[in-house]
UniProtKB/TrEMBL annotation:
Taxonomic source organism: Cyclotella atomus
Origin organism lineage: Eukaryota, Sar, Stramenopiles, Ochrophyta, Bacillariophyta
Record GO terms (molecular function): oxidoreductase activity
Family: Belongs to the short-chain dehydrogenases/reductases (SDR) family.
Keyword NAD: no
InterPro entries on file: NAD(P)-bd_dom_sf (IPR036291), SDR_fam (IPR002347)
Domain of life where this protein originates: Eukaryota
Pfam family, any one: adh_short
Keyword Signal: yes
UniProt keywords, alphabetically: Oxidoreductase, Signal
Protein name (database record): Protochlorophyllide reductase
Signal peptide region: 1-19
Length: 403
Protein backbone atom coordinates (compact mmCIF):
# COMPACT_ATOMS: atom_id res chain seq x y z
CA UNK A 1 0.00 0.00 0.00
CA UNK A 2 2.66 2.49 0.94
CA UNK A 3 4.44 1.85 -2.37
CA UNK A 4 1.49 2.69 -4.49
CA UNK A 5 0.55 5.75 -2.54
CA UNK A 6 4.07 7.07 -2.90
CA UNK A 7 3.22 7.47 -6.52
CA UNK A 8 -0.27 8.47 -5.74
CA UNK A 9 0.63 11.43 -3.67
CA UNK A 10 2.96 12.97 -6.18
CA UNK A 11 0.69 12.41 -9.13
CA UNK A 12 -2.27 13.28 -7.01
CA UNK A 13 -0.91 16.73 -6.34
CA UNK A 14 -2.11 17.55 -9.79
CA UNK A 15 -3.70 14.55 -11.36
CA UNK A 16 -6.23 13.24 -8.95
CA UNK A 17 -7.42 16.73 -8.32
CA UNK A 18 -7.73 17.48 -11.98
CA UNK A 19 -9.05 14.02 -12.70
CA UNK A 20 -12.32 14.83 -11.11
CA UNK A 21 -12.34 18.54 -11.68
CA UNK A 22 -14.71 18.85 -14.63
CA UNK A 23 -17.18 16.48 -13.05
CA UNK A 24 -17.18 17.80 -9.54
CA UNK A 25 -20.27 19.83 -8.95
CA UNK A 26 -18.53 21.95 -6.34
CA UNK A 27 -16.45 24.13 -8.66
CA UNK A 28 -15.00 26.21 -5.83
CA UNK A 29 -13.29 23.10 -4.51
CA UNK A 30 -11.67 22.16 -7.78
CA UNK A 31 -10.55 25.64 -8.71
CA UNK A 32 -8.92 26.01 -5.32
CA UNK A 33 -7.18 22.71 -5.74
CA UNK A 34 -5.97 23.72 -9.17
CA UNK A 35 -4.66 26.99 -7.79
CA UNK A 36 -2.74 25.09 -5.16
CA UNK A 37 -0.97 22.96 -7.69
CA UNK A 38 -0.34 25.57 -10.34
CA UNK A 39 1.32 27.77 -7.76
CA UNK A 40 4.02 25.12 -7.59
CA UNK A 41 5.37 26.33 -10.91
CA UNK A 42 5.88 29.87 -9.72
CA UNK A 43 7.28 29.21 -6.32
CA UNK A 44 9.01 25.88 -6.37
CA UNK A 45 11.34 26.22 -9.31
CA UNK A 46 14.25 27.26 -7.17
CA UNK A 47 13.79 24.67 -4.45
CA UNK A 48 15.83 21.54 -4.35
CA UNK A 49 14.08 18.27 -5.05
CA UNK A 50 13.59 17.36 -1.43
CA UNK A 51 11.99 20.64 -0.50
CA UNK A 52 9.97 20.62 -3.67
CA UNK A 53 8.65 17.18 -2.89
CA UNK A 54 7.78 18.15 0.66
CA UNK A 55 5.84 21.14 -0.58
CA UNK A 56 3.99 18.98 -3.09
CA UNK A 57 3.08 16.59 -0.29
CA UNK A 58 1.61 19.43 1.71
CA UNK A 59 -0.32 20.75 -1.26
CA UNK A 60 -1.62 17.28 -1.99
CA UNK A 61 -2.63 16.88 1.63
CA UNK A 62 -4.65 20.07 1.57
CA UNK A 63 -6.15 19.26 -1.79
CA UNK A 64 -7.06 15.77 -0.65
CA UNK A 65 -8.75 17.09 2.45
CA UNK A 66 -10.74 19.48 0.31
CA UNK A 67 -11.71 16.71 -2.02
CA UNK A 68 -12.61 14.15 0.60
CA UNK A 69 -15.14 16.57 1.97
CA UNK A 70 -16.96 16.45 -1.36
CA UNK A 71 -19.22 13.40 -1.68
CA UNK A 72 -19.69 14.15 -5.36
CA UNK A 73 -15.99 13.51 -5.90
CA UNK A 74 -16.40 10.01 -4.51
CA UNK A 75 -19.40 9.43 -6.78
CA UNK A 76 -17.33 10.46 -9.74
CA UNK A 77 -14.47 8.23 -8.68
CA UNK A 78 -16.83 5.27 -8.73
CA UNK A 79 -18.66 6.18 -11.89
CA UNK A 80 -18.05 3.63 -14.60
CA UNK A 81 -21.11 3.10 -16.72
CA UNK A 82 -19.39 2.31 -20.01
CA UNK A 83 -17.56 -0.67 -18.57
CA UNK A 84 -16.91 -2.05 -15.10
CA UNK A 85 -13.98 -0.46 -13.27
CA UNK A 86 -11.61 -2.73 -15.15
CA UNK A 87 -12.25 -3.14 -18.87
CA UNK A 88 -11.09 -6.46 -20.25
CA UNK A 89 -11.54 -7.19 -23.94
CA UNK A 90 -13.06 -10.62 -24.51
CA UNK A 91 -10.73 -13.57 -25.07
CA UNK A 92 -9.78 -13.89 -28.76
CA UNK A 93 -11.45 -10.59 -29.64
CA UNK A 94 -8.05 -9.16 -30.66
CA UNK A 95 -6.87 -12.25 -32.54
CA UNK A 96 -4.91 -11.23 -35.62
CA UNK A 97 -4.52 -7.62 -34.43
CA UNK A 98 -1.13 -5.98 -34.16
CA UNK A 99 -0.64 -3.36 -31.48
CA UNK A 100 2.33 -1.07 -30.75
CA UNK A 101 2.49 0.52 -27.29
CA UNK A 102 5.14 3.10 -26.35
CA UNK A 103 6.44 3.00 -22.80
CA UNK A 104 5.16 -0.55 -22.57
CA UNK A 105 7.70 -1.70 -19.99
CA UNK A 106 5.86 -0.31 -16.98
CA UNK A 107 2.74 1.40 -15.64
CA UNK A 108 -0.27 1.94 -17.88
CA UNK A 109 1.65 0.82 -20.95
CA UNK A 110 2.59 -2.54 -19.46
CA UNK A 111 -0.94 -3.13 -18.20
CA UNK A 112 -2.31 -2.32 -21.66
CA UNK A 113 0.13 -4.81 -23.19
CA UNK A 114 -1.07 -7.53 -20.84
CA UNK A 115 -4.75 -6.98 -21.43
CA UNK A 116 -4.56 -6.65 -25.20
CA UNK A 117 -2.27 -9.67 -25.52
CA UNK A 118 -4.63 -11.61 -23.26
CA UNK A 119 -7.38 -10.85 -25.79
CA UNK A 120 -5.25 -12.41 -28.52
CA UNK A 121 -3.35 -9.44 -29.95
CA UNK A 122 0.29 -9.49 -30.98
CA UNK A 123 1.80 -6.59 -29.06
CA UNK A 124 5.10 -4.83 -29.64
CA UNK A 125 5.99 -2.90 -26.53
CA UNK A 126 8.60 -0.21 -26.75
CA UNK A 127 11.20 0.46 -24.12
CA UNK A 128 14.20 2.75 -24.12
CA UNK A 129 16.19 0.20 -22.15
CA UNK A 130 16.66 -3.27 -23.63
CA UNK A 131 16.84 -4.92 -20.19
CA UNK A 132 13.58 -3.33 -19.08
CA UNK A 133 12.01 -4.40 -22.36
CA UNK A 134 13.04 -8.03 -21.87
CA UNK A 135 11.81 -7.99 -18.27
CA UNK A 136 8.44 -6.65 -19.40
CA UNK A 137 8.15 -9.34 -22.07
CA UNK A 138 8.88 -11.99 -19.41
CA UNK A 139 6.28 -10.48 -17.11
CA UNK A 140 3.62 -10.44 -19.82
CA UNK A 141 4.48 -13.99 -20.89
CA UNK A 142 4.08 -15.18 -17.30
CA UNK A 143 0.77 -13.31 -17.12
CA UNK A 144 -0.47 -14.92 -20.34
CA UNK A 145 0.61 -18.38 -19.18
CA UNK A 146 -1.06 -17.88 -15.81
CA UNK A 147 -4.26 -16.89 -17.59
CA UNK A 148 -4.09 -19.79 -20.03
CA UNK A 149 -3.90 -17.48 -23.06
CA UNK A 150 -2.92 -19.24 -26.26
CA UNK A 151 -3.08 -16.60 -28.98
CA UNK A 152 -1.45 -13.46 -27.56
CA UNK A 153 2.17 -12.68 -28.29
CA UNK A 154 4.48 -9.99 -27.00
CA UNK A 155 7.79 -8.58 -28.21
CA UNK A 156 9.94 -5.61 -27.30
CA UNK A 157 11.54 -2.94 -29.49
CA UNK A 158 13.84 -0.12 -28.56
CA UNK A 159 12.51 3.44 -28.67
CA UNK A 160 13.87 6.58 -27.05
CA UNK A 161 11.56 9.49 -27.67
CA UNK A 162 14.23 11.91 -26.49
CA UNK A 163 16.43 10.96 -29.43
CA UNK A 164 14.89 11.87 -32.78
CA UNK A 165 17.39 9.75 -34.73
CA UNK A 166 16.27 6.78 -32.68
CA UNK A 167 12.60 7.66 -33.28
CA UNK A 168 13.11 8.03 -37.02
CA UNK A 169 14.64 4.56 -37.31
CA UNK A 170 12.00 2.86 -35.17
CA UNK A 171 9.99 1.80 -38.21
CA UNK A 172 12.98 -0.27 -39.42
CA UNK A 173 13.24 -2.04 -36.07
CA UNK A 174 9.50 -2.59 -36.06
CA UNK A 175 9.55 -3.98 -39.59
CA UNK A 176 12.15 -6.53 -38.57
CA UNK A 177 9.71 -7.79 -35.97
CA UNK A 178 6.41 -7.59 -37.83
CA UNK A 179 7.46 -8.13 -41.45
CA UNK A 180 4.66 -7.18 -43.81
CA UNK A 181 1.94 -7.13 -41.21
CA UNK A 182 0.17 -3.84 -40.65
CA UNK A 183 -0.23 -2.12 -37.30
CA UNK A 184 -3.86 -1.95 -36.18
CA UNK A 185 -3.32 0.09 -33.03
CA UNK A 186 -0.62 2.59 -32.14
CA UNK A 187 -0.83 3.59 -28.51
CA UNK A 188 1.30 6.66 -27.80
CA UNK A 189 1.49 6.10 -24.08
CA UNK A 190 5.03 6.87 -22.86
CA UNK A 191 5.43 10.02 -20.86
CA UNK A 192 7.25 11.98 -18.22
CA UNK A 193 5.72 14.34 -15.70
CA UNK A 194 6.76 17.47 -13.85
CA UNK A 195 10.52 17.39 -14.31
CA UNK A 196 11.71 19.83 -11.63
CA UNK A 197 14.20 21.77 -13.75
CA UNK A 198 14.34 22.64 -17.41
CA UNK A 199 16.19 19.76 -19.06
CA UNK A 200 17.13 19.57 -22.72
CA UNK A 201 17.29 16.42 -24.80
CA UNK A 202 20.20 15.62 -27.10
CA UNK A 203 18.14 17.22 -29.87
CA UNK A 204 18.02 20.42 -27.83
CA UNK A 205 14.32 20.35 -26.96
CA UNK A 206 12.70 20.52 -23.54
CA UNK A 207 12.40 16.96 -22.24
CA UNK A 208 8.69 16.94 -21.41
CA UNK A 209 7.82 18.51 -24.77
CA UNK A 210 9.90 16.02 -26.71
CA UNK A 211 8.97 12.89 -24.76
CA UNK A 212 5.27 13.55 -24.48
CA UNK A 213 4.57 15.32 -27.77
CA UNK A 214 7.34 15.82 -30.35
CA UNK A 215 8.76 12.29 -30.17
CA UNK A 216 5.30 10.77 -30.50
CA UNK A 217 4.45 13.14 -33.33
CA UNK A 218 7.58 12.06 -35.23
CA UNK A 219 6.97 8.41 -34.37
CA UNK A 220 3.41 8.51 -35.69
CA UNK A 221 4.49 10.20 -38.91
CA UNK A 222 7.28 7.67 -39.46
CA UNK A 223 5.10 4.71 -38.71
CA UNK A 224 2.24 5.74 -41.02
CA UNK A 225 3.37 3.50 -43.92
CA UNK A 226 3.17 0.52 -41.56
CA UNK A 227 -0.34 1.29 -40.33
CA UNK A 228 -3.52 -0.42 -41.46
CA UNK A 229 -5.79 2.07 -43.23
CA UNK A 230 -8.36 1.69 -40.45
CA UNK A 231 -5.80 1.89 -37.63
CA UNK A 232 -6.55 3.44 -34.27
CA UNK A 233 -4.09 5.92 -32.85
CA UNK A 234 -4.45 6.45 -29.12
CA UNK A 235 -2.69 9.41 -27.55
CA UNK A 236 -2.54 9.12 -23.79
CA UNK A 237 -3.08 12.65 -22.55
CA UNK A 238 -4.28 13.86 -19.16
CA UNK A 239 -6.76 16.24 -17.62
CA UNK A 240 -3.55 17.92 -16.54
CA UNK A 241 -3.78 19.69 -19.94
CA UNK A 242 -5.83 22.23 -18.00
CA UNK A 243 -2.63 23.47 -16.40
CA UNK A 244 -1.81 25.02 -19.74
CA UNK A 245 -4.60 27.42 -18.91
CA UNK A 246 -3.42 30.06 -21.37
CA UNK A 247 -3.78 27.55 -24.16
CA UNK A 248 -0.97 26.53 -26.46
CA UNK A 249 1.95 28.92 -26.25
CA UNK A 250 3.84 28.34 -29.46
CA UNK A 251 6.64 30.62 -28.32
CA UNK A 252 7.12 28.63 -25.12
CA UNK A 253 7.08 25.03 -26.33
CA UNK A 254 10.57 24.50 -24.97
CA UNK A 255 10.19 26.62 -21.88
CA UNK A 256 11.97 29.46 -23.70
CA UNK A 257 9.94 32.16 -21.98
CA UNK A 258 9.20 30.38 -18.75
CA UNK A 259 9.65 26.84 -17.51
CA UNK A 260 7.50 25.23 -14.86
CA UNK A 261 7.34 21.50 -14.11
CA UNK A 262 3.55 21.40 -14.09
CA UNK A 263 2.86 23.97 -16.78
CA UNK A 264 5.26 22.14 -19.06
CA UNK A 265 3.44 18.87 -18.36
CA UNK A 266 0.10 20.60 -18.95
CA UNK A 267 1.33 22.02 -22.23
CA UNK A 268 2.53 18.64 -23.44
CA UNK A 269 -0.77 17.00 -22.56
CA UNK A 270 -2.61 19.80 -24.37
CA UNK A 271 -0.37 19.10 -27.38
CA UNK A 272 -1.49 15.45 -27.24
CA UNK A 273 -5.09 16.60 -27.60
CA UNK A 274 -4.41 19.17 -30.33
CA UNK A 275 -2.33 16.63 -32.24
CA UNK A 276 -5.21 14.14 -32.02
CA UNK A 277 -7.72 16.73 -33.27
CA UNK A 278 -5.59 17.71 -36.25
CA UNK A 279 -4.63 14.14 -37.09
CA UNK A 280 -8.27 13.10 -37.18
CA UNK A 281 -9.18 16.09 -39.30
CA UNK A 282 -6.42 15.44 -41.83
CA UNK A 283 -7.17 11.71 -41.94
CA UNK A 284 -10.81 12.39 -42.71
CA UNK A 285 -9.82 14.65 -45.59
CA UNK A 286 -7.57 11.99 -47.07
CA UNK A 287 -8.82 9.22 -49.33
CA UNK A 288 -6.35 6.69 -48.01
CA UNK A 289 -6.74 7.43 -44.31
CA UNK A 290 -10.44 8.19 -43.96
CA UNK A 291 -10.85 5.00 -41.93
CA UNK A 292 -8.19 5.97 -39.38
CA UNK A 293 -9.41 6.91 -35.91
CA UNK A 294 -7.48 8.98 -33.40
CA UNK A 295 -8.33 9.41 -29.73
CA UNK A 296 -6.91 11.23 -26.77
CA UNK A 297 -7.71 10.34 -23.19
CA UNK A 298 -7.23 10.82 -19.50
CA UNK A 299 -6.52 7.54 -17.71
CA UNK A 300 -7.40 8.90 -14.28
CA UNK A 301 -5.05 9.46 -11.38
CA UNK A 302 -3.29 6.15 -11.32
CA UNK A 303 -0.82 4.38 -9.06
CA UNK A 304 2.14 4.16 -11.43
CA UNK A 305 5.78 5.21 -11.23
CA UNK A 306 5.14 8.46 -13.11
CA UNK A 307 6.03 10.48 -10.04
CA UNK A 308 9.65 9.40 -10.21
CA UNK A 309 10.47 12.29 -12.52
CA UNK A 310 9.21 14.71 -9.93
CA UNK A 311 11.18 13.44 -6.98
CA UNK A 312 14.12 11.81 -8.70
CA UNK A 313 14.42 8.10 -9.43
CA UNK A 314 16.83 7.35 -6.59
CA UNK A 315 14.70 8.94 -3.92
CA UNK A 316 11.59 7.41 -5.41
CA UNK A 317 13.06 3.92 -5.22
CA UNK A 318 14.25 4.51 -1.69
CA UNK A 319 10.77 5.61 -0.65
CA UNK A 320 9.38 2.53 -2.31
CA UNK A 321 11.66 0.42 -0.11
CA UNK A 322 11.32 2.32 3.14
CA UNK A 323 7.90 3.90 2.98
CA UNK A 324 6.85 7.21 4.47
CA UNK A 325 8.07 8.67 7.69
CA UNK A 326 6.18 11.96 8.05
CA UNK A 327 2.62 12.64 9.16
CA UNK A 328 1.89 14.50 5.94
CA UNK A 329 2.78 11.43 3.93
CA UNK A 330 0.50 9.35 6.12
CA UNK A 331 -2.30 11.89 5.82
CA UNK A 332 -2.05 11.90 2.08
CA UNK A 333 -1.87 8.14 1.99
CA UNK A 334 -5.04 7.71 3.99
CA UNK A 335 -7.06 10.45 2.39
CA UNK A 336 -5.99 10.12 -1.23
CA UNK A 337 -6.11 6.35 -1.55
CA UNK A 338 -9.80 6.32 -2.30
CA UNK A 339 -9.35 8.67 -5.25
CA UNK A 340 -6.53 6.87 -6.93
CA UNK A 341 -7.13 4.24 -9.52
CA UNK A 342 -5.23 0.99 -9.61
CA UNK A 343 -3.14 0.42 -12.73
CA UNK A 344 -5.74 -2.13 -13.86
CA UNK A 345 -8.48 0.49 -13.57
CA UNK A 346 -6.36 3.28 -15.01
CA UNK A 347 -5.45 1.38 -18.16
CA UNK A 348 -9.09 0.64 -18.90
CA UNK A 349 -9.90 3.64 -21.09
CA UNK A 350 -6.91 3.18 -23.37
CA UNK A 351 -7.48 -0.57 -23.59
CA UNK A 352 -11.15 0.09 -24.35
CA UNK A 353 -10.26 2.51 -27.16
CA UNK A 354 -7.84 -0.05 -28.59
CA UNK A 355 -10.22 -2.98 -28.46
CA UNK A 356 -13.86 -1.94 -28.30
CA UNK A 357 -16.02 -2.83 -31.26
CA UNK A 358 -18.70 -0.28 -30.44
CA UNK A 359 -16.68 2.81 -31.37
CA UNK A 360 -18.88 5.03 -33.53
CA UNK A 361 -17.74 7.64 -36.09
CA UNK A 362 -18.88 10.42 -33.77
CA UNK A 363 -16.22 9.32 -31.25
CA UNK A 364 -13.37 9.83 -33.72
CA UNK A 365 -10.85 12.45 -32.65
CA UNK A 366 -12.46 12.88 -29.23
CA UNK A 367 -11.02 13.07 -25.70
CA UNK A 368 -12.08 10.26 -23.35
CA UNK A 369 -12.24 9.85 -19.61
CA UNK A 370 -13.64 6.74 -17.89
CA UNK A 371 -14.44 5.32 -21.30
CA UNK A 372 -16.69 8.24 -22.23
CA UNK A 373 -16.26 11.25 -24.47
CA UNK A 374 -15.36 14.17 -22.22
CA UNK A 375 -15.86 17.78 -23.25
CA UNK A 376 -12.59 19.70 -23.19
CA UNK A 377 -11.88 23.39 -22.68
CA UNK A 378 -12.09 25.66 -25.70
CA UNK A 379 -8.31 26.05 -25.89
CA UNK A 380 -8.04 22.30 -26.44
CA UNK A 381 -10.27 22.51 -29.53
CA UNK A 382 -8.52 25.50 -31.08
CA UNK A 383 -8.19 24.45 -34.74
CA UNK A 384 -5.77 27.21 -35.65
CA UNK A 385 -3.41 26.33 -32.81
CA UNK A 386 -3.64 22.66 -33.72
CA UNK A 387 -2.65 23.47 -37.29
CA UNK A 388 0.23 25.65 -36.14
CA UNK A 389 1.43 23.00 -33.71
CA UNK A 390 1.43 20.48 -36.55
CA UNK A 391 3.55 22.75 -38.76
CA UNK A 392 5.98 23.55 -35.94
CA UNK A 393 6.25 19.88 -34.99
CA UNK A 394 7.08 18.89 -38.56
CA UNK A 395 9.73 21.58 -38.64
CA UNK A 396 11.29 20.74 -35.26
CA UNK A 397 11.25 16.99 -35.78
CA UNK A 398 12.23 17.10 -39.43
CA UNK A 399 9.53 14.51 -40.15
CA UNK A 400 6.67 15.14 -42.57
CA UNK A 401 3.32 13.39 -42.38
CA UNK A 402 2.16 11.84 -45.63
CA UNK A 403 -1.59 11.80 -45.22
N1 LIG B 1 -0.34 7.80 -13.78
C1 LIG B 1 -1.22 8.77 -13.87
O1 LIG B 1 -1.87 9.13 -12.88
C2 LIG B 1 -1.48 9.45 -15.18
C3 LIG B 1 -2.49 10.42 -15.22
C4 LIG B 1 -2.73 11.08 -16.41
C5 LIG B 1 -2.01 10.74 -17.55
N2 LIG B 1 -1.02 9.80 -17.46
C6 LIG B 1 -0.26 9.51 -18.68
O2 LIG B 1 -0.18 8.11 -18.85
C7 LIG B 1 0.98 7.79 -19.61
C8 LIG B 1 1.70 6.62 -18.98
O3 LIG B 1 2.17 7.03 -17.72
P1 LIG B 1 2.35 6.04 -16.49
O4 LIG B 1 1.58 6.62 -15.37
O5 LIG B 1 2.16 4.64 -16.87
O6 LIG B 1 3.88 6.34 -16.16
P2 LIG B 1 5.15 5.40 -15.95
O7 LIG B 1 4.79 4.21 -15.16
O8 LIG B 1 6.20 6.31 -15.46
O9 LIG B 1 5.50 4.95 -17.45
C9 LIG B 1 6.03 5.85 -18.36
C10 LIG B 1 6.65 5.09 -19.51
O10 LIG B 1 7.20 6.06 -20.42
C11 LIG B 1 8.52 5.66 -20.74
N3 LIG B 1 9.37 6.75 -21.14
C12 LIG B 1 9.77 7.83 -20.43
N4 LIG B 1 10.63 8.58 -21.14
C13 LIG B 1 10.77 7.96 -22.34
C14 LIG B 1 11.53 8.23 -23.50
N5 LIG B 1 12.35 9.28 -23.58
N6 LIG B 1 11.44 7.39 -24.54
C15 LIG B 1 10.65 6.31 -24.48
N7 LIG B 1 9.92 5.98 -23.42
C16 LIG B 1 9.98 6.81 -22.35
C17 LIG B 1 9.03 5.03 -19.46
O11 LIG B 1 10.19 4.29 -19.70
P3 LIG B 1 11.28 4.04 -18.52
O12 LIG B 1 10.69 2.99 -17.65
O13 LIG B 1 12.51 3.63 -19.22
O14 LIG B 1 11.44 5.35 -17.81
C18 LIG B 1 7.83 4.20 -19.08
O15 LIG B 1 7.80 3.03 -19.83
C19 LIG B 1 1.82 9.08 -19.67
O16 LIG B 1 1.66 9.67 -20.94
C20 LIG B 1 1.18 9.97 -18.62
O17 LIG B 1 1.29 11.34 -18.91
C21 LIG B 1 -0.75 9.15 -16.30
Amino acid sequence: MKLTVTTALATSAILSVSAFQPNIRCSRVSSRAVRLTSQADDTDATLDRRTFFASIVQKAAVASLVLTSSPSAIDVANAADVFPKVYKPAANSMNGKLVVITGGNTGLGLESVKRLAAAGATVVLTSRDAGKGRKAVDEVTTYLDANGVQGGKVMAANLDLCDLDNVKTFNNRLKEIIGDKKVDVLMNNAGVMAIPDLTLTKDGYEKTFQTNHLGHFALTATIMPLLASNARIINVSSLGYQFAGKGLELDNLNGEKQYGPWSSYGLSKLENILFTNELQKRAQQSDKWSGLTAFSLHPGAVQTDLARYLIGEEKFNSMKENGFSSWTDKLVMESMAKFIKTVEEGASTQVYLAAADNITPSMAGKFFDNGKVEKVNGFATDDEKAKELWAVSEKLSGVQFKL
